[in-house]
Amino acid sequence: MSETFFGKSVKRREDARLLTGKGAFVDDLKIPFTTHAAFVRSPHAHAKINKIDLTAAKAMKGVIAIYTGKDLKDSGVKPIPVGWLLPGIKVPAHYPLAVDKVRHMGDAVALVIAETVYIARDAAELVEVDYQVLPALSDGAEALKKGAPTVHDEAPDNVCFRWALGDKAATDKAFTTAHKIVKQSFRNHRLIPNAIEPRACLASANAGTGETTLWVTSQNPHVHRLIMAAFVLGIPEHKLRVISQDVGGGFGSKIFIYPEECAVTWASRALSRPIKWTSDRREAFLTDAHGRDHHTEAEIALSAEGNFLGLRVKTVANLGAYLTLFAPAVPTYLYGTLLTGTYKTPAIHVDVTGVFTHTTPVDAYRGAGRPEATYLIERLVDLSAKALGMDPLEIRRKNLLTSDQFPYQTPVALLYDSGNYQGALDKALTMFDYPGFRKEQAAARKEGRYLGVGFSTYVEACGLAPSQVAGALGAQAGLYESATVRVHPTGKVTVFTGSHSHGQGHETTFAQVAADELQVPMEDVEIVHGDTGIVPFGMGSYGSRSGPVGTAAIHMGAQKIKEKAKKIAAHLLEANEKDVVYEGGKFFVKGTPGVSKSFFDVSLMAYLAHNLPKGLEPGLEAISFFDPGNFVFPFGTHICMVEVERSTGVVKVLRYVAVDDLGRVINPMIVDGMVHGGILQGVSQALYEHAEYDENAQLITGSMMNYVVPKADDFIGVELARTETPTPVNPLGIKGAGETGTIASTPAVANAVMDALSPFGIQHIDMPLTPGRIWEALRGRKEA
Amino acid sequence: MASVTITVNGTPQTREIETRVLLVHFLRDTLGLTGTHVGCDTSQCGACTVTLDGMAVKSCSLFAVQADGRSVGTIEGVAKEGKLNAMQEGFWQEHGLQCGFCTPGMIMAACALIERNPKPTDHEVRVGLEGNMCRCTGYTNIVKAVQTAAAATAAGKR
Amino acid sequence: MYASEFEYYAPGTVAEAVALLGKYGDDAKVVSGSQSLVPMMKLRLSSLKHLVDLRKVPGLTGITESGGFVVVGGMTTHHAVSVSELVKKKLPMMAEAAGNIGDAQVRNLGTIGGSLAHADPSADWPAVLTALDATLVIASAGGERSVKIGDFILGPLTTVLQPAEILTQVRVPLPQGRYGGAYQKLPHPASRFAVVGVAAEMFLDAGGAVQSSRIAITGLGPKVSRASSVEQALQGKKPDAAALKAAAAKAADGIEIRDDLIGSAAYKANLAAVIAERVLARAVARATNR
Q1: pLDDT 10s digits, A379-393
Q2: What crossing angle do the helices spanning A740-757 and A370-388 adopt, rounded to 10°?
C-alpha cells in the first residue's frame, strides 16, 4: 500500500448520494406519527404583548397543542445562553418564545402543533395576539442617540458592551507625528445568510426511555446538545441525542442555538410525539442570524514616505434584538484583533460598542468579523495611496510584513504563525499584468470606458484557539476538536470526528488524511460525523477550523493507533519495538521487509487477543483531542478588474485573480471550490446584497424577490493559484480555507470600483456598490 | 381532496390529496421522493426543479392537481440502472456541488439546458441557470460541470 | 409555502370555465401557467376559494398568422413565444422579450395571458405589446370582446378583466413597411423583473425618416405607459444618433417615479433614457435592414 492521498484532488465520496437525490437533510426525514409545528410571529419590530387569544386556533380540528412564551417559562424553560461573555456585557434574557414583549419583526410568540403542516399553518393564522406597538429602531448608530427607543430594560442606553484593544497612548502619539492622516467613515452593511437549505428540526421524545432525539440543521451538534440540554431545557445531556447528517450549507447561520429547535424539542417532550418544523424562506430572512452591520470611523496616520504609523478605529456593531451564541465575539475578538492586516502598522487602537436594536440578531456569518476588518484595512490602504499620490501596489509593498518577521506579534494581540505576503503578491502579478492593465485603462478612458483594478493583500485568522486563552477572554466553550479512530478486526477503519461537514467534503478529505496516516486504502476508511449518539464529542465546524483543528485530531489519533499496533507487531515479529518500522502498510524489522505483519494481521490480533504483549489491552481504538496552540493565518492577494458604465452605474467584473496561501492543502479541488464560493459572497457584498429595514424596523428586503442572492450570470469564473507556507501550529501544516474568499474579496472589488471612478474624483462610496448608488455619486461630476 | 394520477419517473402514481398540495410536496411528502428540495417560497431558488412533460419547471410553482395526468421527472429518475447520467458525472468530476442541497434542481435544470443548447458558451450556461441558486460554489465549477457534461453528451451521440 | 384550502376545477371548455368563474365571483380566480398566482397563494397573499385551471381547455395555446395578425393563444408559454419561428421572423422583439422573462423554468410554465392578466407593473409583456399595438380577446358567458392593450391595464395588479372573464388571445397586427422593433430591460438584481423596460416599434419612410413609432415603458410607474414625448420627438426626424439620444432623453417624461432601494427617481429616469436610446438604435437598425 504505497498510494498516498494528501494533496490529491480525490473525487468526493459524499457526492454519490447528493447527486442522486439520496441525501438525508432534516426535512427529508420521516418518522411515523410525526406532528408539525408552525410559529406565530410578530409582524411588529417592537411591541408589548397584551393578550394572546388561542380560542379559535385551538378549536381547529387537527390542532394538538398551542404554547406561548409564558407556558414555556412557567414549565422551567430557561433563556438561551450566550457563548462568549465580555467584561461588563449586558445579557438580556432570550426565551425561545417571547414572553412579554416582541423585539424584532418575526420574533416568535406562540408555537402551534398540529397533525399536518397545513393545519398548523392554518391555526397559526387564527392565533390572535393583541400587541401594543412601541417605537422601534433598526440602525446601530441611531441606537446610541439620546431618546432612542430602548430594546431591553437591562440596557437603557442600548449598549450591550464596550470593548477596546490596543495601546491607546502609542496610537495617539503616532497620530501626532503623522505627515498625513486619512480619515474615512465606513458602513459595513448587514447581510442575510440564505443557505439554500432552510433551517429545520425534528424532535422525537421517547416517553418510555426518557430519551429525546433531535435532528437539526446544525454545524455543531454537540454544542447544540450541550446548550439545549444543560442550559435551556434541563434535559440530562446523555438523554438528548442530536443528529445533523446532511446539512445544506451553513455559513455560520447554523452554528447558533435557535428558539425554534428549543421550543420544538420541549414540546415533543411535553406531548411525547415527534414534531417537525421547517423554516420557510420568509421565516429564514427574519430569524436566521444576520451578519456584519457596522458603523465605523477609522483613521490612519501616514509618514511622508508612505509608512503606516498608526490606526485608530471606532466601531458601532449592531447586535440586533438578542445576543445569539457567538455574537459578542464577532465584532471584537474576530474583528479588532485582525486590524493589523498584513502590514507593519506599529500602533493600533480599536474601540467597539455593541448595541441592541429591534432587528434580527447578528452573529457570525461567512468570515465573521474578519471581512469587516479586512474591508476596512484594504480600503484605508487605497485611500492612503491616493492621499499620498502613491500607487496602491507601491504602498502595499512598502508596508507588508516580510517573511523574516514571522512569527509576528501584532499590536492587537495576535501572533501571526507564518507568512510570505510578497510571495503571494508576486505570484498574483504573474497572472495579472498590472502595467499592461494601466495602459488598457488609459486607452479605455479615452473611449469613455472606465476600468478599475483593486487589490486585497489580506490575512485572516481562523481555527480559533487555544481553549485556555479563549476561556480567559470570555469564551464559554473549548476550541479543540476530537477524533476517535477505531480500527476494526479486519483492519478497516472508522473515524468519528467532532468536526461537522455541511458542504466541506470531510467524508473525503478526512479519509484522505486518515488513510495516509494509517497507510491503508481510502476505501477502508469511513468518516462519521454529526451524531452525538456516536461521536464522543466535538466542537463542530465554523471559523475554518475543520482543516487546521479537526484533521489534526485525526492525525493524533492515528499516531496512537500506530504506536499500539507497533507494539503488537513487534511482539508478533518477536522483535524489539524500537526496531520495528511501519511502511507501505506493513510492520517489519528495519532492513528485513521480507518478514512482515500487515495492518490486517495486527488489527486482527488486537481483537483476537490470543497473542498480545504482556499487559497490553485488546482492541485498537484511540481518541484524541487536538487543542491548537494558536490560530492559523491564511493570507494572499486578490486582484479584481471591473468596468463601470458611466451612463447606468452598472459594474461588471471582468477578471478575478486570487492567490491564496492556505498552508498545506489536503484536496486542491475541494479547496478551490470553497474559495470560489467565498469569493462570490465577498463580491456579492460589495455589489449586490443588502439587508434594509424601514423606519419602523420592518425588514424590507425580506425575500429573494428583493434581497439579492447572486445567480450564475451575476459573476464570472475566477482564476486561482496558491502559494504554500505551512503553519507550525498543527502537525499537518494546514491553514483554514473556508472563509478566505469572502474575507479577501470584498475590498478587492470595492477598490476596483473606486479606481474606475477615480477620474471623477470619487474616493469612497459605501457598499453595496449598486448601479443606483454609483450613478448618484457620479451625478453632476465631470471627468478630471 | 382530489384524486390525481401523475406519472413520476415513468411510474403512474395515483393518490388522494388535498388540492393545496404543491407538486413539490406531493413528490416529497406523498411519494417520499425527497431528492427534490425546497429552498425558498417565492419560486426563485430552483432547488425544486423537476421536469413536467419533459420541460424543466419549478415544482413549488404549481399544485399537484395541476399535474394530474402528466409526466414528472425527478432527480431520482436521472441515473439509469445505477449509472449516473452525463450531467451527474460532470458535477462529480468538476466538483460542481458542495452541500448538495441545490444540486438536484441544478442538475435537472442543467440537463434541460444542454438538451436545448447542446454546445453552450460559458455565458449561456450562466444565463441558462439563472433560475437556480447555489450559495456554496460561486458557480465556477457548476459551469465547468455543465460543459463537461455537454462535451460528454456530444461525444456519446457522435 | 402552504396555501389555504381551495376548490380546484379543470373545466374542458371556455364556457364551463366562465360559468365557474361567474358562479364564485370574487372568491374564484383563473390560473394559466401558475407562475404569478401560485406563488401568491402559497404565501397566502391571495385568499381565493376556487381555482379554475384552464389547462384542459383546448384552443388556448399556439401561435398562428391570420388576417394580418399574429395570434397568440392566451395560454401560450413565454418559451413557446421565444422559439416560434413566426414570431422570430415577423416580431423579433416579442421573441427577445419572451426569452428573457423570469428564468428558463418560469418561461416553460408562465403564459402570455397569465402575465397580462396579473398585470405586474414591472412585467415585460405590457410594454412589448403596447409598442406592437396588440389587441386582447376576452371571453365571457356573453361571448367575446376585444380590448386594446392600452385600455387593458388599469394599475398595479388591476385590469379591465371582470371576475367571469378570461383572456383568450393576444392579437398582434403584423407591421407593414420598413419597421423594426426592440425591447430591453434592466432587470432587478433579485427578482429579475424590469426595473425599467423599454419597447419600441419604429416605422421609417422611404427616405429613412421616422414615419411613426410606438414606444412603451414598463417598471417605472404603476403601470405600463406610452412614451409619447419620445414618439413626438422622433416624428419625421432622421433617426441618427443625435436625434435618438435627444428623443430618448424624454423617456420618463410624465411618469411619476418613486425612489426605492434600486435608486432615486432621477436615477431611474436616467436609466429609462439610456435604455430607450439603445432600444431605439436597435429598432432603427432593424427597420433600416428590412
Answers
A1: 999 999 999 999 999
A2: 30
